[in-house]
Amino acid sequence: MTKIIRFMAIALICIQSFASFGQQTDVPAFLSSELEFLWESENTLEVPESVFFDADNSCIYVSNIKGTPSNQDGNGYISKLNLKGEITTHKWITGLDAPKGMAKYGNFLFVSDINDLAVIDIAKGEIVKKYPAPTAIFLNDVAVNPKTGTVYVSDNMTGSIHRLKNGNFTVWLKDDQLDHVNGLTFKDDYLCAGVLNKIIKIETDTKSIKTLADNTGSIDGLINLDDNTWIISDWVGNIQMIKSGKAKKLLSSAEQQINAADLGYIPEQKIILVPTFHNNRVIAYQLKK
Questions:
Q1: pLDDT at 209 over 60
Q2: Which residues contact 6 (CB under 8 A, 6 or more apart)?
Q3: CB–CB of 122/111 below 8 Å?
């Protein structure tokens, strides 16, 4: 009888494990029908802040702060995941403090790191250069002009954007309209930025600024889908679609205290990659429409 009970218990555990495979551990308080959960990584990441999809190498990079976002403690690192969300190299790049936004040009990955811009040779898997930004307080997101390779980095504590061009890393633009500037991305020939309560575009030659969307709330991750459509996150745990100036909530995990930091995106499959910060995972959702 004891053997039968033991066998039944083991069988039940196996059935439960199989049933939960590929299912989301913490279901968001709100999940729109336009999003479908795909996978989540193991929760062994350490304060993941940003996710970047590398199409050339078919992998995902994750920046891990491992500590306080502003501490220069040498604990930060970059992880590599495959497209199933499996962590293939937990500490692929070390020697960082609190890495955040990432962008790629050619064989190089550019990573913001409090008041440094780190340059990683992807093939070698090592940091080859660090550009200091003495006046920066909290470098955050990174974007690269795909035509020129010029790198732009937001500093949301000083309301400014730094630029790396021809080996010089300096303040490129400081403006009152860059209030809490965070998410950056390129669209056509314009640098687009998420600032407090709006999305703006900046003409890189004249530095003229135009508002694209108002009343967005705070913006961390910023993804452009087409001329009129954006996906944004607000770190607290909300993800919205901004279409023709109107906001629609896609996901909210704020009640579970699961953050939604600097989003990544796989355009071919319309997959949104969400770093959950204190929840220590990356979660993938597919945009169904």
A1: yes
A2: none
A3: no
